[in-house]
Design brief:
six-stranded antiparallel beta sheet; 2 helices
């Protein structure tokens, strides 16, 4: 298995494929203070107009704000819009 991952990593580097494309690690993109895109999420744990909790493979993302809405969702990414005050993270202990 280690040999296979090594080969895959070499191929990805040779093709210049970004790590976030081939891994399950979440990627968070902020567009100002009113829009977030979260890629590679697992599930939505809690959703209210002032607080959203999203599970990922490495922990939980907490979004705090006002008038929060999840306007665009696919099985791989979510777009959160509203007045975003803060983000914090809960790391999963191994």
């Amino acid at each position: 298995m280690i040999m296979r991952k090594s080969k895959i990593n070499r191929i990805n580097r040779a093709l210049e494929i970004p790590e976030e494309v081939v891994s399950s690690v979440p990627k968070i993109t902020a567009l100002g203070f009113e829009k977030l895109m979260i890629e590679n999420y697992k599930s939505i744990l809690e959703y209210q107009d002032f607080f959203i909790r999203i599970s990922t493979c490495i922990g939980i993302i907490n979004i705090n704000g006002f008038d929060l809405k999840m306007n665009e969702m696919t099985s791989d990414d979510i777009v959160v819009e509203g007045k975003i005050d803060s983000l914090d993270f809960e790391e999963i202990e191994s």
